[in-house]
Amino acid sequence: MSEHVYVLGSNSFSGGHFIRMLLDMGYRVTGVSRSPEAHPVFLPHLAANGRHRNGYDFLRIDINRDMPSLLARMERDKPAYIVNFAAQGMVAESWEHPEQWLLTNTVSPVILHNKLRQYEWLSRFVQISTPEVYGATQGMLVENTCYNPSTPYAVSKAAVDMSLMCFYRAYDFPVVFTRAANVFGPCQQLYRIVPRAVLCFLAGGILQLHGGGRSRRCFIHIEDVARATHEIMTRSRPGSIFHIATPRIISIRDLVFLVADMVGVSPEKHITVAEERLGKDLAYTLDSSKLRAELDWREQYSLEQGIEDVIRWVRDNLSVLRAMPQNYEHRA
To answer: What is the rounded CA–CA span in Å between residue 13 and residue 137?
Structure first.
């Protein structure tokens, strides 16, 4: 297989795992990110020696500032697939600079889409969306649930999704959408709850539990999401939306207590309760029956297997990870 895939947001956790899977399958891959590549401990697609694997190129391009460079490379390479993981992704921080979230997640992507719709070589554009667009809801969410975003981040993602759907209806733009539950696994950034909890418990630290951990989520292993994304990229019809989730829902408190039990520590000694974050939605319950029925996808990892995977990764890299920042660092 020699088809070419562009992965926007290649430095992201999900993007890196998706790239690794594509390279394993024989695709040619070009990764694009506005930031320099992160520490190798966070880049699952690197070779064992820490270098790029054959078939992979990395472009450092900020589409907010240098869209022409990206378009020139795309016009030269004519990739069959473009998968967009790129986004300002932090919910709480989006309240502080909402205009930056709208620029990165909505305005610049729409400029890109308006150029890409003119090219016949593009087979699929995969938009990695988010269940945040639905806002706080009750009951199971299906793919045609109305948007009700409750944070600037969610507004920015809902806006670009609606624009892309307009492009599909008006121009037959070959877009498909994914909305995954909370993704986790090895190589995830340390400000995310699962690796943060594992590292905190192994290093003897204190973990803040916002709102007492009342909010409830589905957590899904990144390898299961990567497989689903590939199936959606290659087999779905343009204009389709797919939820990627498992049936298991767990509160953040229960998740953290499960991690503590698997690490072998007493959670009461390592947890403090903090104020809930502004606009935090209490629950998302995604119905993934469409993905299961149409593309015959099934998850392969249980929650416990995924947590064990993260524990193993943290233990193997404990000295490196302990020296890393554990809080999100925003850049415009």
So the answer is: 27
